[in-house]
Specification:
about 260 residues; alpha/beta; Rossmann fold; 2 domains; six-stranded mixed beta sheet
């Protein structure tokens, strides 16, 4: 395997006297999606901030590939309702020089029609796509995405995770994805790391799904491996951000999905 984009070796992190991360070993590689899962308070966002350089490890070593460019999609980004800000202007703050590239980033995440819409009028799914477009503008080697599907319905989540896989393949970038959506994320990732301040288990989705530590972490829930691909299915139609269906791949507004998922 190629040189890691980021490598953590026996990393510990203390914040305010609390041991937030303990003995973390982690490698992030190009063209691979690595997903952190774990309960609230497990240290997932703190680990992402270590990768980003926002937290300095209390001990252990962290190395980054020279010249590494990182695109970051935060868990929450609140825009004041009174601030007159269009999507294009919001992206301009990240990339002020290249209007065409801002347009291309929106096209890549299938929301080009939102370019001049006020950000306050976006739905949850639209806003998450705009945040992803903002991260893509960095032309990053590594994307760090903290709960990218929050506020998005299940169909929209599945579409978003599928888009991330396409971005990984096209840009050959590494992706560090933080989520608690076990079924959907694990069906779309290359590697899963279960975190509870330390790494409880890690490996392919199939391997982790069978690990007793995984089931202990989530209250003993026995999740069959087959269910990890929930909502990942082949069909002859496309969904828009709201779950609307069109057999020709076009967006239809106000329609309802009348099919079932295996």
């Amino acid at each position: 395997m190629s040189q890691p984009l980021v490598a953590l070796r026996d990393v510990n992190l203390q914040l305010g006297g609390t041991h937030v991360l303990q003995h973390i070993d982690l490698q992030l590689h190009k063209a691979r999606i690595t997903t952190l899962i774990g309960p609230n308070g497990a240290g997932k966002t703190s680990l992402a901030k270590v990768v980003l350089g926002l937290h300095t490890p209390s001990s252990g070593t962290l190395t980054r590939k020279p010249g590494l460019k990182i695109g970051y999609m935060p868990q929450r980004l609140r825009i004041d309702d009174s601030l007159p800000l269009t999507v294009d202007r919001f992206l301009w703050l990240a990339d002020p020089a290249h209007k065409n590239e801002r347009r291309a980033a929106l096209e890549r995440v299938d929301v080009a029609e939102l370019q001049f819409k006020p950000v306050q009028q976006l739905s949850g799914g639209e806003w998450q796509r705009v945040l992803l477009a903002r991260a893509l503008l960095r032309k990053a080697d590594l994307l760090v995405l903290d709960e990218p599907a929050q506020g998005v319905d299940v169909i929209g989540q599945n579409a978003l995770y599928g888009l991330l896989a396409e971005v990984r393949d096209e840009m050959h970038c590494g992706i560090l994805l933080i989520s608690h959506d076990l079924h959907l994320v694990m069906a779309a990732t290359d590697e899963v790391i279960c975190l509870q301040h330390h790494v409880c288990c890690s490996g392919t989705p199939e391997a982790v799904s069978k690990d007793p530590a995984f089931h202990d972490m989530f209250g003993g829930a026995q999740i069959p491996a087959a269910n990890l691909a929930l909502y990942t299915h082949d069909h002859d139609h496309a969904h828009d951000l709201h779950g609307n269906v069109d057999a020709d791949g076009n967006h239809i507004h106000g329609d309802h999905c009348g099919h079932h998922h295996d």
